[in-house]
Design goal:
36% helix; single chain; Rossmann fold; 157 residues; 6 helices; alpha/beta
C-alpha cells in the first residue's frame, strides 16, 4: 500500500503556501518509521501535470492546501473520496497554479492512476498576497492540518 501526501502552494504568496509548510512539519514529525517506505511526502509546489507520474501506483492520496472554504480564516476542513472530487470540481476559486487540482485528478482518472482513497485537507486563507510566511491565524492551523493527515495515515495503514 502506497500513500502520497501532496503539499500544494506558493510560499511567496503568504497563506497560499500553507500546504508546503504543513507538509514539511508533517514529514519532520512523522514517527512511524515502519510505514515510512510506504508513504511519499511530495512538495507539489504550484502543481503541474508532471505530478500524474507521482500518483502512478498510489493507493491513497492526501492533499494539503489552502482552499476557499467560505469559512473563517484558519478553519480546517477535510474532504474525502467523492466529497473531495466534488469540492475540487465545483469550488469557485481562481488558481495561481499551472493546472488546477481538479485537472490533475481528471488526468489521473484518464490514465487510470487515480488513487482509490483520496482526501483534501484545506484551510481557509486570510490573505493571499506577496508574503514569505502565512498569517498568524493560518500558521496556528498547521498543527490541526497535520493531525488530520496523521489520522488519515493511521486509518489507511
Amino acid at each position: 500500500m502506497r500513500t502520497v501526501v501532496l503539499g500544494l502552494g506558493n510560499t511567496l504568496l503568504g497563506d497560499d503556501g500553507v500546504g508546503i509548510y504543513a507538509l514539511n512539519e508533517l514529514q519532520s514529525n512523522w514517527q512511524d518509521h515502519e510505514k515510512l517506505d510506504s508513504i511519499e511526502f511530495v512538495d507539489g509546489g504550484t502543481l503541474s501535470f508532471t505530478l500524474t507520474e507521482t500518483l502512478y501506483g498510489a493507493d491513497n492520496l492526501i492533499v494539503i492546501d489552502a482552499a476557499q472554504l467560505s469559512a473563517k480564516p484558519g478553519e480546517v476542513k477535510v474532504f474525502t473520496d467523492n466529497d473531495m472530487d466534488d469540492f475540487v470540481r465545483t469550488s469557485n476559486c481562481s488558481s495561481v497554479h499551472e493546472v488546477s487540482l481538479s485537472e490533475l485528478l481528471d488526468m489521473a482518472r484518464l490514465l487510470d492512476t487515480l488513487p482509490t482513497r483520496r482526501a483534501l485537507i484545506g484551510v481557509q486563507p486570510e490573505i493571499v498576497d506577496w508574503a514569505d510566511q502565512p498569517t498568524e491565524i493560518v500558521k496556528k492551523a498547521i498543527p490541526v492540518m497535520c493531525q488530520e493527515a496523521n489520522s488519515l495515515l493511521e486509518a489507511w495503514h
